[in-house]
Amino acid sequence: MTLLDESEIMPATTPCAQRAYEDRYQPCQLMGATTAATAIADSVVSYHGPGGCRMTIEHLRSDNVPDGIYTMVLSSGVDQGDVIHGGTNKLRQMLQETAVQMATRHKAKIIWLVTACAASIIGDDIEMAAQQAEKKTGLKVIPIDTPGFGGGFTKGFQKVYRALLDHFVEAPGPGSQSNVLNLIGPHLIGSKNWPWDYREMMRLMESADIRPNLVLTHKTKVDDVRDHFLEAAANYVLTPEELPDFEEKCDELGIPNWGQELVLPIGMANTEEWYLEIARRFGDEGKAKRQLKEDMDLLRSRLKWDYNASWVMHDLSGKHVAVIGQAGYAAAMARCLLYDFNLRPVLIGLLGESPRAIAAGRKLLSEVESLAHPQIMENPTFFEWGTAVRDSVADFVVGMKQDRVLTEGMKVPHLPLGGFYFLNQFNFIPWPYLGVRGVLGLLTELSKVMEDVKHEKDSWRALSYIKPRGETA
Asked: For the chain, what are the domain ranges?
C-alpha cells in the first residue's frame, strides 16, 4: 500500500511545482532569535537542539562579532535517542553548565533558552526547565520556543524584543523626550554592511539634534533596557516587516512605533528624503540641511577631479540592472541606482515575511515603476528569479551572496550588497554604504562589478599566448 498515487506526485518541472518549492535561503526564527539575543552584551544563549542548527546559529552570531560582541552559545546536543525518549535531562545539564560558565567566565545577567524544531516537536518543557534552573542557580532564564517551522527570521527577532520588554520594562517610565528615539532592528535593514550603516544613520540623527537612545539589539545592555527604554518619544523601526507581538507590547507601554515605511537612506536622493522627514518629526530640519551640504561637499571634494570616478560613473550610466533583497532594502537600492547613478532597474525582487513588507516595497517603487517600468517580483523562488534574470536585459545583478552562484552560473555579473555580514562581507574598513558619505562605498563596490561587465575574459583566454595550467597548446 502506498501513501500517494503516482498521479498525485507533481513533476519537478511543472511551473506549479517550481513555485511551490520555496528554494530561497530563508533563515528561520531560531536563527533570528539567536542573532538578536547574542547582540545583547550581558547574555548567554542555551540552545536546545541538534548540532546542525547549532552550526548555523554560530555563523549568524558572527554578525555581531566585528564590533567586539561575543556571546557564548551552549548546546544540549539533541540526538536521535533524545527525539524518541525526550531530551529533558540534556536540557537540565546544559542549563547547569551554562550557569557554571556564567559564574566563572561570563558575567552575564540572563540566559536565553531557545529551541530547534526537534526539541519543539518532542515537547520538552522548556518553561519548567527554566523555572527549575532559576530556582537552583538564582540566574534569570528566559525560554523562547523557536522552531524553524513556526516562522521566519524576523519572527525570531521580535520574540527576543518582546521578551526584553516583558521581563524588564514597566510603565510608567521616566518620561519621554521629544527628540529621543529607540532604534529597532539594525540587523533587519537588509544590508550586508548593517553594522556601519545603522551607525551612519545615528550620526546623521545626532547632527540634527535627534538623540538615539537604545538599539534593539546591538551592544545592548539589560539594565539600559530597563532604565531607559521608555525615555524615547518613539521606536524607529528599521524594517517594514510586521512585528505584531512587539508592537502590541509597545502599545501597552504607550510608546509608538514609527518609520516602518520610511525609505532607507541609500544614496543621495533617498538620504535627503529620509533625513528631512525624520528631522522635521523629531529634530532640527535646518541642522539636517547643513549636515547634508557638509556631506555633499565631502563627496564633491573626493570625486570632483578623480578621473577614475568619472570613468566608472560613465560606464554605469544607462546600464540595465536587476536588484533582489529584503523589500525595504531592495526598493531603496533600486531607487538609488536610478536616481543617483542613472542605472535602469529592469527587474526587482522583493523579499518579505509579511504582506506589509511587500506593500511598503511596492509603495517606495511607485515612481521607479513610472520611470523605468521594471518587472517586480514578490518573494520569487531562486528558480523563478534565475529564469527572470536570464530572460531580462540586465547587465548585472545587485543581490546577496546566496544568489551569486545562480547568477554568475548564467554568466551574468553579480554584486552582493544585501544579506548578512558573516556570509559575504569582506570589507574590513568601517565605512557605511548608507547616507551621502556612503556613496563612496557604493561607488567602490559598483566599480568592482563593472570590471566584470565590460571585461571580455573569454576573449582574454582565447587570445592568451600562454595557456592556462593543464591545457596544451
From this structure: 29-151, 170-281
